[in-house]
């Protein structure tokens, strides 16, 4: 009930205050399971991706947030689910797969942690594992502007333009193996990079995916949390 009330309200506020421009929302399946895979630069990203979506979506959030009085209660009712950081969280992966098996939409951030506005980095293998084991279509999502609206370490948003671009769904076979999971994650991240080029934001977003050597990841880590 709370999600149903706040989703259209959030969308309206995003359009009014941040001139949020949305394209490609028709690519989000109207029924059945789906994974929304977005780049990640701000804690503002989950509502920005979720508000324009045509149906409710689920998020994975770091477990510490659920221990904050009031906040934990709120985000649970907004379809957030806890994930432990610091390594692979098998329970979070099982939960994500269960949600997808029930036909839900799950938002993940393949990079696993927030980066800087204008930078795309290499994905962790966890998103590829979700796609391969669930068989759900993956919708790449490009978000720009949120890193300027709410930079890391700040709490007061700035009134800066935001754009959200949903790409055509990707489908992957039900394969197994760390190398294959990583290859799928890389392909998803490359699709986000192609969205950047298609909308003409290459000059704003800087280097293509995987150009940051410090962003190389451990393939077996499951990284689905939007607040890491």
Explained architecture:
With 228 residues, the protein is of the alpha/beta class. The chain has one domain (17-215): Glycerol-3-phosphate (1)-acyltransferase (3-Layer(aba) Sandwich), CATH 3.40.1130.10. Helix content is 35%, strand content 14%. It has helices at 2-18, 45-50, 71-76, 90-101, 126-134, 146-149, 178-198, 202-205, and strands at 21-23, 34-38, 58-62, 80-83, 105-108, 138-144, 163-166. Strand 3 (58-62), helix 3 (71-76) and strand 4 (80-83) form a beta-alpha-beta unit. It is globular and about 45 Å long.
Mean pLDDT: 85
| CATH topology-level fold name | Glycerol-3-phosphate (1)-acyltransferase
- Spatial separation of the terminal alpha carbons: 27 Å
Oligomer: single chain
Q: What's the number of extended β-strand segments? A: 7
């Amino acid at each position: 009930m709370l999600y149903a009330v706040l989703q259209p309200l959030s969308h309206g506020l995003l359009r009014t205050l941040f001139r949020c421009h949305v394209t490609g929302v028709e690519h989000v399946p109207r029924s059945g399971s789906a994974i929304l895979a977005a780049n990640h630069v701000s804690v503002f990203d989950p509502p920005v991706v979720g508000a324009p979506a045509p149906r409710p979506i689920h998020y994975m959030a770091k477990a510490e947030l659920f221990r904050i009085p009031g906040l934990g209660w709120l985000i649970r009712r907004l379809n957030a689910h806890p994930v432990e950081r610091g390594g692979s969280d098998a329970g979070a992966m099982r939960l994500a797969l269960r949600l997808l098996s029930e036909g839900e939409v799950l938002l993940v951030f393949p990079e696993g942690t927030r980066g800087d506005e204008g930078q795309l980095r290499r994905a962790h293998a966890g998103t590829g594992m979700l796609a391969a084991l669930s068989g759900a279509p993956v919708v790449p999502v490009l978000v720009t502007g949120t890193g300027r609206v709410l930079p890391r370490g700040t709490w007061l948003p700035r009134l800066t333009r935001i754009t959200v671009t949903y790409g055509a769904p990707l489908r992957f076979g039900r394969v197994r193996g760390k190398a294959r999971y990583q290859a799928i994650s890389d392909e998803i991240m490359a699709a986000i990079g192609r969205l950047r080029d298609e909308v003409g934001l290459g000059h704003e977003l800087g280097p293509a995916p995987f150009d940051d050597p410090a962003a190389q990841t451990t393939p077996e880590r499951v990284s689905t949390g939007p607040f890491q």
